[in-house]
Design goal:
The chain is an alpha+beta fold. The chain is 22% helix and 34% strand. A hairpin with a 3-residue loop joins β3 and β4. InterPro entries: LGFP, SpoIID/LytB, SpoIID/LytB_N.
């Protein structure tokens, strides 16, 4: 049946009204922030500051209880509220909140807020657990500590002194296709990699052990012989050497003892004792307290400061370098060659008169270079390292005729190196106080190449309050100010106690006291 005239007349009008109503609904803008509930002490504080229309504005996230000390916080449009059981709930806003953030939030030296902002004359202040932030129109927000924080966060980069070649930097450059010559000449400004025949077959005296009254030397797969004065005694078993109370060096071979001011030990199949038996000797305590194993050269055992002094006399190129353990042998051939040339140059520069402090040319540890002898040379994975050493020298039979070295204006350089630096390497002047023309600061970014796989491109450690106070010799440390050189090396660190007493250390001194990886760091 057809619609009545009245229905026909009203239907279009109703439809238009409905459409208009829907358009109004659809055009209404949603709130700028989703509605997040506030509750508990945080909700009470928010309400006391005017709620959604107050200083903080509406919440922009839920309440989260994930902070240290089992504490909670909630973010708002213009700031945040933090709550702890010890301090209650307090809001932070604006420049003061930014300054707190820069100091490390609640994990920084200030700790949690203990008040809201308040006016004091021309200043706006806010109290924290360990201090205060004061804002003025002229100076902005300044942090003042009134209590010593429980700890300090130290963030740094690099490992070692950072002068000369960076080993991880060299690795990054080798991965990028650079040669050993290019690598070394990058890190040693103005230096050249050259081939020299002088001292190619020279011997080097390496200190293996000192500070002990007794040491045991044991031959493996052959025999050894002890030379004391005009006597030579052979043995196929261990020999014990002692420094006696009368001040002599005594060797016990079997049931007999032989004494002198010093003695020499040789073993079969070396350049000192030709034989077909490839003998090695084990020296107790020679490698940081552990037994060291050696294939080449001979041992000279004398006295130093009322204890024994054990020296391994080895051929520098053929016998010493293969036993250097300063870089993983799995790295690229060009970076291994860089290390071989640097290690050789360092050793060459230390030839000549022995050091009075050790009766040696070099130490077997990082004070010079880490020398593990046969332990490293004969390791199953050391083949690439031995090849790198061989590739950087020429031989004729068993004699080394020439070798590649780093020189500056014709003289051997001091070929120092370290694991890695920060954004730049450091100059010798920055670290040791004396300028060296080829040891200047250069781009250190290669250690940060992804291909370098440097685990110390950046690092972070926490120093306890007690450790920091002990390092500076203060009752406590309230704050630390760091001054750096242009390369990022920490020049000085000034600590201030709660009572205002100050003490300063060099960056390297603090690095040593806190056992940090490098002297490129910041303290918060």
């Amino acid at each position: 049946m057809p619609a009545s005239p009245s229905v026909k007349a009203t239907t279009p009008t109703l439809a238009a009204l409905l459409i208009g109503f829907l358009l109004v609904l659809c055009s209404t803008q949603p709130p700028a922030h989703a509605a997040y509930a506030t509750s508990g002490a945080i909700g009470t504080m928010h309400k006391s500051l005017g709620g959604n229309s107050g200083k903080l504005g509406p919440a922009v996230g839920p309440q989260r209880c994930t902070l240290i000390q089992k504490s909670c916080y909630q973010s708002f449009k213009h700031g945040s509220i933090h709550w702890t059981k010890a301090t209650g709930a307090h809001a932070t806003l604006g420049a003061i909140r930014t300054a707190w953030k820069k100091s490390g939030w609640e994990r920084g030296p200030l700790g949690y807020p203990t008040s809201n902002e308040y006016r004091s004359g021309s200043e706006t202040r806010q109290k924290f657990q360990n201090g205060m932030i004061v804002w003025t129109a002229k100076s902005g927000a300044k942090v003042t500590l009134t209590k010593a924080p429980s700890s300090f966060t130290i963030k740094g980069s690099g490992f070692g002194h950072g002068v000369g070649m960076s080993q991880y930097g060299a690795r990054g450059m080798a991965t990028a296709g650079k040669s050993s010559t290019q690598i070394l000449q990058h890190y040693c400004t103005g230096a050249k990699v050259t081939t020299m025949s002088k001292n190619a077959d020279a011997s080097l005296k390496v200190q293996l052990l000192t500070g002990k009254k007794s040491v045991t030397v044991t031959p493996r797969s052959g025999r050894l012989r002890v030379k004391v004065g005009s006597k030579t005694i052979e043995s196929g078993s261990k020999v014990t050497i002692e420094r006696t109370s009368s001040g002599s060096v005594q060797a016990t071979v079997g049931s007999k003892s032989y004494s002198g001011s010093k003695l020499t030990l040789e073993w079969q199949s070396t350049r000192y004792w030709k034989s077909s038996s490839a003998t090695t000797v084990s020296v107790s305590g020679a490698q940081n307290g552990a037994t060291g194993t050696y294939r080449h050269g001979r041992l000279e055992i004398g006295q130093l400061k009322s204890s024994l002094n054990v020296i391994n006399v080895v051929g520098l190129n053929k016998e010493y370098l293969p036993g250097i353990a300063e870089m993983p042998a799995s790295w690229q051939s060009e970076v291994l060659r860089s290390q071989a040339i640097a290690s050789r140059t360092y050793a060459y520069r230390n030839l000549g008169a022995v050091k009075p402090a050790c009766g040696c040319n070099v130490y077997d540890e990082v004070a010079s270079q880490r020398f593990l002898g046969w332990t490293h040379e004969n390791a199953g994975d050391s083949g690439p390292w031995r090849k790198a050493v061989a590739a950087t020298q020429t031989t004729s039979g068993s004699t080394v005729r020439s070798a590649r070295l780093i020189t500056y204006k014709g003289g051997l350089i001091d070929a120092v190196y370290s694991s890695s630096a920060g954004s730049k390497t450091h100059s010798a002047a920055e670290v040791w106080g004396s300028a060296v023309p080829y040891l200047v600061s250069v781009d250190g970014s290669p250690p940060k190449y992804a291909s370098a796989q440097n685990p110390n491109a950046s690092w972070s450690v926490t120093a306890k309050q007690s450790d920091m106070a002990r390092a500076f010799g203060l009752a406590d440390v309230r704050s630390v100010a760091v001054a750096k050189t242009g390369s990022g090396l920490v020049k000085t660190v000034k600590a201030t106690s709660v009572k205002g007493k100050t003490a300063s250390l060099t960056g390297d001194q603090l690095r040593t006291k806190l056992k940090l990886k490098s002297a490129s760091f910041s303290v918060a």
